[in-house]
Amino acid sequence: MRLILSSFVFCILSSMLNAQIYLAKSSEISFFSSTPMEDIQAVNKSAKPILDVSTGDVQVKISIQGFVFPKPLMQEHFNENYLESDKYPDAVYKGKINEKVDYTKDGVNKVNVTGKLKMHGVEKDLAFSGTVTVSGKQVTLDSKFKIHIADYNIKVPSLVVKNIAEDVEVKMTAILEPYSPPTKK
Length: 185
Fold this sequence. Notes:
Blueprint: H1 2-14, E1 21-34, E2 39-44, E3 50-52, E4 57-63, H2 72-82, E5 90-97, E6 107-119, E7 122-135, E8 138-148, E9 167-178
Antiparallel strand pairs: 1-2, 1-3, 1-9, 3-4, 4-5, 5-6, 6-7, 7-8, 8-9
């Protein structure tokens, strides 16, 4: 898994040779589904967002199996029945921060992001608002948005349709730092 992630990061970074790249030091992506019958939530701390501060391009690759649920059976159903993580192991978001952010100046910046989310074999436009907080050499990305699960061909069996919301709230927080390529010895 690390080899795949390293290859992904290398490919992205190689394509942005003269870019000013920031790579996640830590991240947390969570989702929450609320219905009168049951609340479902999970957290993923394995995603590694990448930000090109010179263009505002942002990319996030999320391992579906990286979501951790409070109940193991929920996690099993999520991976096997709904997201089919053996067949569709990752979700990938590629987008752009629309506002110009001064990354040399500390502060909180409200931004809008537009792009595409590919999940469960389906790619759809996804736009949302969030904040970019600059503090020294660290950049923190925060966002919250909703995903309509039917848009991604995620089927919910009629037996449990009252337990799973049609729209799922997603939150992301990532702390990024400037990327420094390894030096040759």
